[in-house]
Amino acid sequence: MASVYVYHDFIKLVNNWLFVQTAAADRxxxxxxxxxxxxxxxxxxxxxxxxxRTTTQRVNLFEKVKIPETKANIKRIGIxxxxxxxxxxxxxxxxxxxxxxxxxxxxxADQ
Length: 111
Fold this sequence. Notes:
By secondary structure, this protein is mainly α.
């Protein structure tokens, strides 16, 4: 009977060893999965940080350089268009005076 008892204990020992070995393999697999996920997340954070830096630089460029330049250019264009409008009015008045003077001269010549 003692040999049967030892045999049963040996089977139990092997089964437990396989269970422990399988559990350890499962833990190792889970740890490997978590390590890979952590690497992917670290890469995503790195890429997002790079994109955030680039986007921040672009926003600063527009806020601090391009928008003020554009506002100044719009102001200059407005001034130029105003000056052109005044010049057009002055030219039309000059033309009107010349036409009136020519009409007066031709009226005197007809008499």
